[in-house]
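Researcher: Re-running this chain for the archive, since the previous output was lost when a drive failed. Same request as before.
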Amino acid sequence: MQTAQQSIPASTWIPVTGMAEMIDNWGGHSDATNTGRYYAPWTNSNTSGGDWYLCSGYVPFNATGFGATAFIAGLRKNGGTVLEGGKIPGGAGHVLDTMVIDLIQMSGANNDYVELTAYQTGAGALNTAFSGKTPTLTVRWVAVDQAWPGALTPALPASPHVWTDADIWAGSATGGGKVPANVEVRDLIRFLHNPPIARLTSQGGSQTIPSGTSWTSINFAASGITVDNYGGWSSANPSRYVCQRAGLYLVAGLVSTSDPGTNSGYRAARLLQTFAGGGSQAYAGWTVLPLTSGTIGTAIYAVALVRLSVGDAIETQMQQTQGAALTVLAAANNCSRMNVVWLAK
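Model: Regenerated structure tokens:
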């Protein structure tokens, strides 16, 4: 978390620095050098790409200029392209919060790092907020490098075996007190090395969101699927991630669209879960007004912990009342995204 206020110049992506550790159990951050960066540790599963990390950042700005200034939080790997998160207008006299969540692949063998970045389009520099709210960056390992030979996709492990003195170790055989180590130990370790994750994006796709009070699902492009280790996405239903292993999932959907310049109405996002057995459940996300003018666009989140059963589908949706269709952005830096991460059974 940031330990002092930072000045963010206008229309320039700036790393958020001056970060101090609250917890860092693998020693990826330094309080003294490159204080905005988290360096991935070296692991046995690293290949040229690296393991997958769930990264999230929060940036509170001392906002100004009601509706006229855009505020954006982003993540950047190795000083490259900024992956934009929430992009919303602020208002005078209060703190404007924005955030970013994404799955990022990093290898400690390559000295890869991630940093939180901030951007604003005001007339001059604006400060991050510090009193009561402060910028934060969290990084959590979630899955191995998919190119590693040990990146397997076993069945969801059963509840742990309750051992007795009469139990006998076996390879795969059961019965007569035999406990199959391949199932009880091997498959459990394999699953925890590589639980279900997916990063679906609109990069390379083409879609517009009609104006009105209906909800429109965001389609994800085959060329924009960065990782989907259990095959939950299909081109037959490009807006959906279909659960292959039951559990509690973190789902973070980002809707990113253009604005025409003369902006009006509102923009809203939500997640929609469709149950395999019928019925559905919506999870509300952000609802914002667009910038009063300008074409930088709007990007808003819907984030939830969702318990999914096998065959359940989850998708990200948008509703907008501009009075005309809005284009879903599809570049590497500003595309719409849905990150899906298995957390628990």
